[in-house]
């Protein structure tokens, strides 16, 4: 799959600018995953315990952890567009397997494949858009564009959660079928992107040498830039924390007597609120700055986790958690992209996703085991204690100006 050729530089720049709007459409199509808010419940109906669900997610993240950086390097070396297309194909295959599988082994195979699909997209998508913008000199608008993308993502989530929750009350097969169709549509749409020349790595020898050099150079950049390393560690832990809550909350609400339609409605409301917030992130950031985001968002997350653990209205406390995560995702994504060299962007962003997977490998199965051994409420109490402790440390560190 080769980049589209253009007659002159002006045409090429126009196509690069179109990548931004194409990415909004692609994000919407990609996010119409009706299984995201119900897969934990679906697999529970297939006989999976909380511990087994934790193991499946651990398998996903072990795969993601081991393959993130190699797939990011592939995107830098052979094209972000190519990586994105392959990611969509693997995503569809994983949903097909999950629909027809009926054993832990096949569920695990599906999770391995979907992990690879995420790997192919994680560094490539953002790198493609940022370098498209940088090529035509509008990268300073990235936080606004990122906010718009987050808004589109959340609007698509509203639709996916509501429809997925409703269809699950009728038939899980319908929810999976619609997801497969939308996955195929997003796969075909991915061919419309134009590969930016900026950031493509110059050949330094045979492909194996290029690959190894890319990994070493990207690691050296990450190791030598303390602020970049901190921002990546901070953002990936918060997102792993909130992701764990998102998935186990499905079973928590189900056990409390709520059906899939209600659960989808809760997630839809949080996504709608997130869509409203996303377009205002750059304005909020201009007021509270990086330091305010780094201190306030973890406090909101930790306090809300206590609400999930102890309140009978636990579902309502997921909304502020989702908003805090969205704020971190948009703002810190802008900070991080500004300091990464274009030719290492996809690789380093994949390193960030690898760190996310490391946290998930540790946290997700632990919460599943605690839920089986004691209760999900007890597991959420543990998360609230952990979140509060880490938030206290984070506040002390940031306030002491060790991180600017």
Automatic annotation (TrEMBL):
The keyword Metal-binding does not apply. Residues 1-402 form the Major facilitator superfamily (MFS) profile domain. The keyword Transport applies. InterPro entries: MFS, MFS_DHA3_Transporter, MFS_dom, MFS_trans_sf, Sugar_transporter_CS. Keywords: Membrane, Transmembrane, Transmembrane helix, Transport. Its main location: membrane. Gene3D superfamilies: MFS general substrate transporter like domains. It is a multi-pass membrane protein. It comes from Fusibacter bizertensis. The chain crosses the membrane at residues 85-101, 174-194, 228-249, 261-281, 293-309, 315-336, 348-370, 376-398. It is found in: Cell membrane. This is MFS transporter.
């Amino acid at each position: 799959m080769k980049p589209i050729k253009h007659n002159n530089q002006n045409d090429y720049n126009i196509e690069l600018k179109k990548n931004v709007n194409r990415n909004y459409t692609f994000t919407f199509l990609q996010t119409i995953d009706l299984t995201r808010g119900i897969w934990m419940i679906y697999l529970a109906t297939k006989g999976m315990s909380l511990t087994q669900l934790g193991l499946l997610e651990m398998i996903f993240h072990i795969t993601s952890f081991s393959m993130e950086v190699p797939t990011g390097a592939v995107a830098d070396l052979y094209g972000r567009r190519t990586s994105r297309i392959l990611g969509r194909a693997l995503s569809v295959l994983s949903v097909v397997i999950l629909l027809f599988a009926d054993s832990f082994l096949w569920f695990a195979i599906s999770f391995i494949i979907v992990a690879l699909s995420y790997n192919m997209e994680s560094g490539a998508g953002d790198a493609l858009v940022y370098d498209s913008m940088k090529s035509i000199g509008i990268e300073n608008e990235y936080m606004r564009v990122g906010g718009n993308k987050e808004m589109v993502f959340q609007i698509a989530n509203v639709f996916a959660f509501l429809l997925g929750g409703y269809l699950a009350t009728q038939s899980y097969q319908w929810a999976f079928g619609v997801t497969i169709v939308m996955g195929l549509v997003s796969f075909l749409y991915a061919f419309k992107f134009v590969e930016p020349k900026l950031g493509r790595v110059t050949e330094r020898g045979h492909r194996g040498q290029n690959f190894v050099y890319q990994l070493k150079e990207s690691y050296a950049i990450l190791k030598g830039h303390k602020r970049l390393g901190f921002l990546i560690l901070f953002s990936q832990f918060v997102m792993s924390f909130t992701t764990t809550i998102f998935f186990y909350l499905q079973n928590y609400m189900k056990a409390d007597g709520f059906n899939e339609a209600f659960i989808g409605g809760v997630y839809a409301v949080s996504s709608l609120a997130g869509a409203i917030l996303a377009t205002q992130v750059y304005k909020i950031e201009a007021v509270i700055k990086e330091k305010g985001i780094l201190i306030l968002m973890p406090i909101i997350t930790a306090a809300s986790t206590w609400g999930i653990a102890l309140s009978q209205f636990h579902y309502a406390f997921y909304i502020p958690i989702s908003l805090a995560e969205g704020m971190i995702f948009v703002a810190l994504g802008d900070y991080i992209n500004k300091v990464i060299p274009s030719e290492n962007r996809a690789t380093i962003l994949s390193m960030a996703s690898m760190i996310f997977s490391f946290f998930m490998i540790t946290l997700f199965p632990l919460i599943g085991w605690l839920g089986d051994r004691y209760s999900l409420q007890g597991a959420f109490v543990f998360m609230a204690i952990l979140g509060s402790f880490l938030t206290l440390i984070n506040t002390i560190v940031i306030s002491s100006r060790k991180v600017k």
